[in-house]
Write a structure and sequence with these properties.
Layout: H1 7-10, H2 14-25, E1 37-38, H3 50-53, E2 57-58, E3 68-70, E4 81-86, H4 98-111, E5 116-122, H5 126-137, E6 141-148, H6 160-167, E7 171-176, H7 181-197, E8 203-205, H8 213-231, E9 237-242, H9 246-257, E10 263-268, H10 273-286, H11 293-296, E11 298-300, H12 313-326, H13 335-348, E12 356-361, H14 373-376
Parallel strand pairs: 4-12, 5-6, 5-8, 6-7, 9-10, 9-12, 10-11
Antiparallel strand pairs: 1-2, 3-4
Helix pairs in contact: 4-5, 4-8, 5-6, 8-9, 9-10
C-alpha cells in the first residue's frame, strides 16, 4: 500500500509507487466477469439528453434482482405495511447499492483500456471498498483517496471497510478528513492518474459515491427492477438513505419517467436538504430534463446526528433492536439513520402517499466493524 500525502509530497515517493505498481501488476489478469455487454437504454429513458449520454456498455456484476421482502423492524401503525428492498445482497463482500453504478462505471473504464481504478471517500467508505473488490475481480489495480484524521497509513486501524481495502492490497492516499471533493479529492485523483501515466498505465477516476451521469443509470435500471416487484404489493412510498445523492436521484428520476407511481423520500445523512435538492437539480439541468427536483422527491433532514460517519449509543441501540426484531442488520452511517427516520415518518408524517412503504437497504454492514461499536454499546 502506498500513501501519497499531497501533490508536493508525491515526488519523493514516486520510485516506491512505481515499484509497487510493477510488483502488484505483473500477475494481474482480467477475469471472465470482465465481459462488456452492449447497453441500450429502455424506451422510457428517451427524453432530454438521457439517450445521448447513456453508457455504451455494462458489466454483469451484481446478483440481481435482489429480493423485496415484508419487514417488521419496529412497531408501526396498524394500517401500515413495510417492505425492504435487499440491495445489501447484490454481491458478497462487494454488496450494497454502489455495485449497480459500478456496473456502468467500470464498463466505461474497461472500454477505455484502464489498468487502474481510482476513487475516493471517507476512510470507512462503502463505495471505496466495493470499488476495490470489483476492481480486483476485473484484474484492475485499485487506488483509494481516503479522508482521515490520520496522516500515515501505518497508523490506520485494520477494521471494517478499511481492513478489506488493506487485504486487497489497495494503494492508499490519505487526505485530511474535511477535504472537499472539489478541488481536494478530485485533484488528488488527477495526481495519481499522472503518476500512472508516467509508467504507461491508464487510470480511470470515479467520483465520490460513483455519483455521475454514467453511475445514474445504475439506479434508473435499479428502479425498473424495484417497480416490477412493488406493483404486485400495492406499494405507495419508497424511502432511501442519501449520502452522495446518486441513488436517490436515479430512483426519483426513473419514478418520474414511469409516471410517478410512488412518492420518493430521501433521508439526508450528511450535508442538508438544500444541498441534495441542488444536486438533483444540477443533474436534471445537465440532462436537459424539464423537471424540478422538489417535484421528484422529498429530502428529509434532521437524522445525521453528529455528522457523516458519526454515531452514538442510541444509534447502536436502534440497530441492535432492528436486528433482534427482524434479522436485518443495518449500518451506523447510512441505513441505521435512514431506518430511524423511517420509523419517525410512519408515525408523524401525514403526507405519505399511502400505507405501503419500501425501505431500500443499501448495504454497509462492514461499517459496524470499524472498532467503535464497543465504546457506544449498551444492552
Amino acid at each position: 500500500m502506498v500513501v501519497l500525502k499531497s501533490r508536493m509530497a508525491a515526488q519523493p515517493m514516486l520510485r516506491t509507487f512505481r515499484q509497487t505498481v510493477r510488483r502488484h501488476s505483473t500477475s494481474m489478469q482480467p477475469t471472465a466477469r470482465a465481459i462488456l455487454h452492449e447497453y441500450k437504454p429502455a424506451a422510457w429513458m428517451d427524453v432530454g439528453r438521457l439517450s445521448e449520454v447513456a453508457p455504451k456498455h455494462r458489466l454483469q456484476l451484481s446478483q440481481a434482482p435482489t429480493p423485496l421482502q415484508r419487514w417488521l423492524p419496529f412497531p408501526t401503525r396498524h394500517d401500515t405495511a413495510l417492505f425492504i428492498k435487499r440491495d445489501d445482497l447484490t454481491h458478497g463482500t462487494g454488496a450494497g447499492n454502489k455495485i449497480r453504478k459500478l456496473e456502468f462505471l467500470l464498463a466505461e473504464a474497461l472500454a477505455n483500456s484502464a489498468t487502474d481504478i481510482i476513487t475516493c471517500g471517507g476512510v470507512q467508505s462503502n463505495h471505496c471498498r466495493t470499488t476495490a473488490i470489483l476492481a480486483r475481480e476485473l484484474g484492475l489495480q485499485p487506488h483509494l483517496v481516503l479522508r482521515s484524521h490520520e496522516t500515515c497509513v501505518e497508523t490506520l486501524p485494520s477494521t471494517g471497510n478499511l481492513f478489506l481495502n488493506q487485504l486487497l492490497g489497495c494503494h492508499l492516499h490519505l487526505v485530511p478528513k474535511g477535504t472537499p471533493y472539489e478541488p481536494g479529492l478530485r485533484s488528488s485523483m488527477e495526481d495519481i492518474k499522472a503518476l500512472l501515466a508516467s509508467k504507461d498505465r491508464v487510470g480511470y477516476a470515479i467520483p465520490v459515491g460513483g455519483s455521475n451521469i454514467a453511475g445514474l443509470f445504475g439506479y434508473l435500471e435499479g428502479f425498473a427492477e424495484l417497480h416490477a416487484q412493488c406493483q404486485s404489493e400495492g406499494v405507495t412510498d419508497i424511502t432511501v438513505t442519501c449520502g452522495s445523492g446518486g441513488t436517490a436521484c436515479g430512483l426519483a428520476l426513473a419514478n418520474r419517467l414511469l409516471g410517478n407511481p410512488y412518492r420518493i423520500w430521501a433521508v439526508a445523512i450528511c450535508d442538508n436538504r438544500q444541498y441534495f435538492y441542488q444536486h438533483v437539480q444540477d443533474t436534471l439541468d445537465e440532462l436537459a430534463l424539464p423537471y424540478q427536483a422538489k417535484d421528484l422527491l422529498t429530502v428529509i433532514d434532521g437524522f445525521k446526528g453528529d455528522g457523516y460517519g458519526e454515531f452514538g449509543k442510541n444509534d447502536v441501540k436502534f440497530i441492535r433492536s432492528v436486528a433482534m426484531q427482524s434479522g436485518v442488520v443495518l449500518d451506523p452511517t447510512y441505513t441505521g439513520k435512514g431506518a430511524r427516520a423511517l420509523q419517525t415518518m410512519l408515525w408523524t408524517l401525514k403526507t405519505l402517499r399511502g400505507s405501503k412503504m419500501v425501505f431500500v437497504h443499501t448495504g454497509g454492514v462492514f461499517g459496524l466493524m470499524d472498532g467503535r461499536l464497543g465504546s457506544h454499546d449498551s444492552k
